[in-house]
Design goal:
It is built from nine helices and 15 strands. A hairpin with a 4-residue loop joins strand 9 (about 220-225) and strand 10. The longest helix is centred in the first third of the chain and has 15 residues, at about 100-115. It has two domains: about 30-150, Aminotransferase class 4, branched-chain amino acid transferase, N-terminal domain (D-amino Acid Aminotransferase, Chain A, domain 1); about 155-320, D-amino Acid Aminotransferase, Chain A, domain 2 (Alpha-Beta Barrel), CATH 3.20.10. Strands 7, 8, 9, 10, 11, 12, 13 and 14 form an eight-stranded mixed beta sheet that branches. The chain is globular, with a radius of gyration of 22 Å. It is about 30% helix and about 25% strand. The protein starts with 12 loop residues before the first helix and ends with a strand. Helix 7 (about 240-255) crosses helix 9 (about 305-320).
Amino acid sequence: MKQGFPSIPRFDAEAFRAWCKNTAHPWFGRYCAMYSSWFGGIATDPHLMLIPVDDHMVHRGDGLFETMRCDDGAVYRLDAHFDRLFAGAERVRMPIPWSRAEMTDIMRQVLAAGGKRDALIRLFVSRGPGGHTANPAECEGPQLWILAIRRGPNFMDAHPEGARVVPSGIPAKSGFFPRVKSVNYLPNALMFMEASAAGADFALGFDAEGFMAELPTENAGIVTRDGVLCVPRPEHVLRGTTMARALELAREELVPAGVLRGVEERDVARAEVDAAAELLVFGTTPIVTAGVEWDGRPVGAGRPGPVWRALHAAMRRDMRDPARLTALA
């Protein structure tokens, strides 16, 4: 007789408590604390860091997020993250009933509950739960989740030799979508898989016209052989808060010092990436990272270059500037 699938036991609150007691995943060690507006409190047990399956963010990708860096109890450029969050919410017509001050206070309480002064603060706003169709009208209302997660070392601290980057074959987001930091990150996840399969650290995408786009969760730029820092036009990518500040510092400090001849935001062709003197990666966690290998070939001299050194140093100074920091602890 053909064997069927084993009988599935019923799962109730008591079974859930037993499961929590007997189950621990290795990644749980990174999770410090999470606030949930749905549950109305802060959890420090990773088993309770849950989102309802009928939330539009889960089954339709209908949510926005921000990831902020917290060093020694202070968040770097918090207002820039809020600016992008509220701009994205306006574009997708998602109300956010929490003020900046309220969300900042929740972050402060989450960080305190997690007991860590160095963390990544991750903020999610969803359309809310209420059904399983694509219609946002079924949702009960916006929900907010804020997490404190332990962060690892900066990329260049862990890999001072620099990063290996490969071209991505995943189609880049186009038009409206690159400019909204939504949770629709399937293309980004596939790019991570590409990089891993190629033995590289990052995969760099190109748009339908063959111009440089983004990496999975980072921005990219090149330094031309004649000393110009070039990044994609802002309407073609999600403009990262780190890259935006790095460009300001490049114009304010590196150009006057003669380290750079100029800074441009324009279309960057694949051939220009192939010929670049330096390849730079910008992001909340990698800050400014030097790409030393591109598609299996050395970039420039095959080691971190002078623009990376100067810009990385400028960013590290800026990240210690009290004017750029919001204290949470």
